[in-house]
Amino acid sequence: MRIGREHVWIAGALTPAAIRARALLWSVHARRAVPELPRAGRKLMPALAGSPDEFYRAIGYRRVDAFAFRVDAYEALSDAIFAYGRQGGPFALTPQLITLAGDPTLWSVLWRRLAHVLKRQSRLAEPRFTG
């Protein structure tokens, strides 16, 4: 069992087979067809317009605007941002943060979502982009 800043999860429950099984259980409970599932091992996927947040939570993903992150990837990114924020003052967008985000174009979307949680725990400033 893993406990993060916003999620509690079991790492073994994030395997493709476990995700498929939970998606099927969700579809029976919700009386809806199973939405498109992430490809095996994918930590980030586009969130489908008609898919409710409950579906993503059921399969171990966290919806962030138009994207869905696997909860372990979301928590890893959250931890990294928190660590940089604890250093005090603004910080640059690093290759590590880009790698954890999965796509540099997602940074502003993720920053807005994670910043509100992390600001409760430390003083974070808007990141400076390195180039």
Spell out the blueprint of helices and strands.
Blueprint: E1 2-3, E2 8-9, H1 16-30, E3 44-46, H2 53-59, E4 61-64, E5 67-70, H3 71-86, E6 92-93, H4 95-101, H5 107-118, E7 128-129
Parallel strand pairs: 6-7
Antiparallel strand pairs: 1-2, 3-5, 4-5
Helix pairs in contact: 3-4
Strand content: 5-15%
Secondary-structure element sequence? Answer: EEHEHEEHEHHE
Distance between the termini: 38 Å
Instruction: Please report the number of helical segments.
Output: 5
- The number of distinct structural domains comes to 2
* DSSP strand count: 7
What is the mean pLDDT?
A: 79
Unreliable stretches (pLDDT < 50, length at least 5) are none
Basic shape: elongated
Biggest sheet strand line-up: 3-5-4
Please identify the structural class as seen in this structure: alpha+beta
Indicate the percent of residues in helices. 40-55%
Oligomer: single chain
CA-based gyration radius: 16 Å
Main sheet attributes: strand count, strand direction, barrel closure: 3 strands, antiparallel
